[in-house]
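Example record for the data management plan.
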Amino acid sequence: VRHLLSHRSGVAGIDVPHTLDDLYDWELTCARLAATTPWWEPGTRSGYHAISYGFLVGEVVRRVSGMLPGEYLRQEITGPLGIDFTFGLPEKETHRLAELVQERADRAAQAALLARMEPVAVASLLNPPTGRPVANTPGWRAAEIPAANGHGTARAVAALYGILAGRGTLDGRRILSEQAVERVRESQGACRDLVLGDAFAHETEIALGLWLSGRNRSYGPNPRAMGHDGAGGSCGLADPEAGIALGYVMNRMGSGVADDPRKTALVDAVYAALGEAARG
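Corresponding structural encoding:
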């Protein structure tokens, strides 16, 4: 389970062709992941499980609780706390949805990037191809893909991270023990990500489900702050020492995979404001 949570299981992607319709089939996707030979020795390195992560961890949740992760999230966390976040989007909520948009891509640059990608990166990121055009379709919105199609407001993202920032509590309700929050940010070691590779100019330091701010200050100056970036620039972070959580969502997709300049500016501004408050 530790390997699954820290992107170290080696099952970063399915090793046979997998279509979008296949991806929308929970049982089929999990069966193909179970049959996939790990791309590296489990536990030795990290490689971003871009899509497979939600099925691997989600299937553990299903086998323990009897519920798919979306239902478990609703019953145990978002429902009781009134947090406006779901995996997939209920049809009755589609009128609230923002369409994802993206600037015109540089086809030559895209082709060059594809040519450099290792097979494990192709399996993790492009089997099947997802991204903005797919994410705007009814099939994607209705499916349960926990690693990639969470739908919610920025306030909801901040609230979810607020559970961690509050050392397990939010609005007086305890969701996790303080010990569990500390386990979430137990470093599993820093390394060059085997999937994202050159997309990061630095080593990443993964904990149990989230990345640590570490020496790179990706989530502020506290090296033990934790967070995660989303496709196109969205972000969430929690800093228990400062007692803050942040959520940022957008519908204009950025071109990077992490540390979008909009997110970086927001994180810097939040900590600058905290510094000013402390001095005041």
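Summary line stored alongside the record: The chain has twelve helices and twelve strands.
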